[in-house]
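*** Backbone structure tokens ***
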Amino acid sequence: MGKKKVHHGPPPGKNAYLERRRVRDDVMQDANRQTFEQYTWDCLCMVLNDKTVMGKDVFGRKRIAKIHKAWMDVYKKFIPVLLKRDETDAYRVLFDQQLQKILQEYFAPFEERYYWLPVTEEAKKKTYTGEG
């Protein structure tokens, strides 16, 4: 028998161009995410250290570092709200419950704040009163 042909690159039937484009798009999306994370953090640091906003209680380097650590912990905990995973619904419910406690009458549901993201099945049933 002859030797089995070895394929390099995408499996047969896959479009190599589309795979390269998907990889490039993923890299660009990640770069955009990191850029906006950093920009948001930089702006928040300036606000937290601005006397016209914070009054006499401006945040210095140590308090800002403490906030950054806590912010990253919350960010990592709730990243599933933005992803398409089995646990997305549960995380979105918890995310909104915590924000509703903080913002009270100024709270807007996830689907309004992130209107461009697909609505999950659980969200279609949600009442935002703490009940499913």
In short: The CA atoms of residues 36 and 131 lie 34 Å apart. Helices lie at 16-48, 51-54, 61-78, 88-103, 110-113, 121-125. Confidence is low (pLDDT under 50) at residues 128-132. The chain has two domains: 14-59, 69-132.
